[in-house]
Design goal:
Number of strands: 10
Mean pLDDT: 90
Distance between the termini: 32 Å
Strand order of the largest sheet: 6-7-8-3-9-10
CATH class of the largest domain: Alpha Beta
CATH topology of the largest domain: Rossmann fold
Oligomer: single chain
Low-confidence stretches: none
CATH architecture of the largest domain: 3-Layer(aba) Sandwich
Strand content: 25-35%
Largest sheet: 6 strands, mixed
Structural class: alpha/beta
Number of domains: 2
Radius of gyration: 17 Å
Shape: globular
Length: about 230
């Protein structure tokens, strides 16, 4: 479904990531893990059309989407839940969800997607009229995940969904990601939390200093002494 080849992202003279190759097949959850500043979010933003790569190619469902505007990628079925959540704090839960589904023409589908989000996170239905800015960090992350799902995506990129959350909330986020399989949704999970990623992902890419250092199934990486020491010891 997603093929990234020789991707290079620069910010002026600064090289954020170099020669990135990764692929995500339909129905998979693929993890991209690495330390802060490794280039993970730059990859996510390049795939989502928010930054223009210096070189390389990005194919989504066989079409090169390099340079395509982000609003067109949403209509193609590619969604990004950004680091920091990107919510409207002075709007209600339901208003944020409606903004996530703004590109949908079919209102019945929009209603069905909203109900699906409420099934995933029942507390949001109870608080659908609450201003998002008054909610806890964990509840806001639930809203952010739901906003990403409201676009009816085929592929959803989650950028650091566990950042700053309590362990019990991280566990719930992991359970939600596992539930994505039942929704026929493909996921690229970008995380510093290696434990979360290795628990839910089918394959893991490990990035450091802007380059992919390892790629394997979680079980194999967990038996690799170098990976354990450098990336999975936290």
């Amino acid at each position: 479904m997603l093929e990234v080849s020789n991707l290079v992202v620069r910010y002026g003279p600064f090289l954020a990531c170099d020669a990135i190759n990764l692929s995500v097949k339909a129905g998979e959850i693929v993890g991209l893990i690495g330390p802060n500043g490794a280039g993970k979010s730059s990859i996510a933003r390049a795939i989502a059309g928010l930054v223009t790569p210096a070189s390389g190619s990005i194919h989504f469902e066989g079409v090169n989407i390099l340079g395509a505007p982000s609003h067109m990628l949403i209509r193609r079925g590619l969604s990004l839940v950004p680091e920091g959540r990107g919510l409207f704090p002075h709007m209600s839960v339901e208003e944020n969800l409606l903004m996530g589904g703004y590109s949908l023409i079919n209102q019945e589908r929009r209603k069905a997607l909203m109900e699906r989000c409420y099934e995933l996170f029942p507390i949001m239905k109870q608080r659908r009229n609450q201003m998002v800015g008054t909610m806890s960090g964990g509840q806001q992350q639930m809203v952010a995940v739901s906003v990403g799902l409201m676009g009816d995506p085929k592929l959803c990129i989650f950028d650091e969904p566990s950042l700053g959350l309590a362990p019990i909330v991280i566990q719930q986020i992991g359970e939600t990601l596992e539930g994505m399989r039942k929704l026929d949704l493909t996921v690229l999970l970008i995380e510093q939390n290696a434990k979360l990623a290795t628990t839910v992902a089918d394959h893991i890419y490990v990035i450091s200093a802007g380059r992919i250092q390892h790629h394997d199934k979680p079980q194999a990486l967990l038996q690799n002494p170098e990976v354990l020491e450098k990336f999975l010891s936290a």
